[in-house]
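Inputs:
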Amino acid sequence: MAAMVERGIVSTTGLIAHGRGEAFDYLLGEATTPEAEAAEAAAAALLSLAQRPVITVNGNAAALAARELGDLARACGAPLEVNLFHRSDRRMDLVCDFVEGETGLKVLGRDQDAVLEGIASDRARCTKEGLLSADVVLIPLEDGDRAQAMVKAGKKVISIDLNPLSRTSLAAEVAVVDEITRAVPGITAWCSRFRTRPEEARGVLAAFDNHENLGSLLQRICRGLEEGPPK
Amino acid sequence: MAAMVERGIVSTTGLIAHGRGEAFDYLLGEATTPEAEAAEAAAAALLSLAQRPVITVNGNAAALAARELGDLARACGAPLEVNLFHRSDRRMDLVCDFVEGETGLKVLGRDQDAVLEGIASDRARCTKEGLLSADVVLIPLEDGDRAQAMVKAGKKVISIDLNPLSRTSLAAEVAVVDEITRAVPGITAWCSRFRTRPEEARGVLAAFDNHENLGSLLQRICRGLEEGPPK
C-alpha cells in the first residue's frame, strides 16, 4: 500500500482507512466467516439478477483488488466505474489507467456527466451511463455518505467493508464484511454458479437478511474477543 | 497525520497503524473507559515509584502527542527517548528536533550507544543512559517485539495501545487501552496527585491486575458491539 501511495493511486487518508480495515479484519481472525460467505452468495445473487449492475472502484479498491474486480465485472457483466474520494483530474487518470491496465477492461469515470443527489463535494460526481442508471451497485470500501445517497436514489447496494457497524454496512442491502481480496473472488465464484441457476439465486436472496447476518457476525467477533488473541 | 507524513515525522506504515488504532477507538466509543482510567492511575503509580523511568517516543507518538508527553515527562521526572521503527539518521534528527521544539525538553536517542537484546534490526538500538538503564518504561504505540524484549530485560512496561489484544498490551505490566491524547494527560494528572502521596500510589498499584482489567475491557467492547453503532 505504501508503494501505491507513492504512485498516486492511494491517498494518505486512504492509508488510514486501510489501517482501520486491518483492525476489523484482525477481529474476524483474518478469514472469511460463515456470515461473510452468506453475504457473498447474496451479493452474487443480486448482481446476477440485476438489469444494470455497476461496480464502483476507488483508490484503495484499485490498489488492493483491481484484477479481482475485473474478473467479477466479467463474470456478472457489470462495468467498473472509478469514483475517488480525494479527486483530481490527474489522480482520476492515474487510477483509470491503472485499473484498465490491470483488468484489460475499459472503465467508466473519466467523463463524469452526472451527479448523485444528496452529497456535497466532488464525491457526488458519477456517470449517467454507469452509476446513475444502475439498479444494483457493488461499492467496495465506500464511505457512508455515498452509500446512503445511493440507497436514497433507489439502488440496491452491496457493500464490501470490514466494519460491521459502519453506516455503509448498515445502509446496504447486502453488507459483505470481509477483506476485499477474499470477498471479490468469493462473489465471482457464486456469480459463475448462478449464471445457469437463476432460481437458486432468487432463493438465496429471499433467505438473506442483512441485519440478522450482521448481528450474527457481531456475536462471532465477541466470542473471539472473549477467548483472547485470535492467534 | 497526513501533514506529518509530508514532514517526515510519520511513516506510511505508521499511518496504517494509526488507522488500526482508530478502529479500536471506535469500538471503545472514542472515550476513556473506566478500565483505561484504572490503568492510567496504575501507570502513574509505577512512574511515580520508579527509580529511573523513561518514556519512549516514536514517529506516531511524536505527531499525535509530543506536548502531552513533554508535560508527563516533567510531571514524573522521566526523560523522553526517541526510538523509530523505520529509522534513518535524517528521520531521527527530524523527530528529535520536532519533539524538542514542541516540549522544550532535550531528548535522548540521537546517539544510540546500546542495544536491547532479542530484537533484530535497527529497532534494537537505544541509549545506555535512557532505556537500557530504566526500571520502568512507558511505551506509547509500541510494537510487540520491542515490548516483549523490554519485559525480558526486566523492565516494568507501561503500554499505551488501543488494541487490547495486541502482544504489547498483553506483555505490559500496565496496558493503557486509550487514545494517546486522552491517555497521557490522564497519567500526568495522576502523577501530580501521587507526588505527595506515595502510599496511595502503592495501594493503587497493588490493587491493579492487568489481565483482569483487559478482560473487563473486552466485555465492555462486546456489550457495545451487541448494542450496535456507538453513536
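The first strand of chain A starts at residue 53 and ends at 57. Flag for discussion at group meeting.
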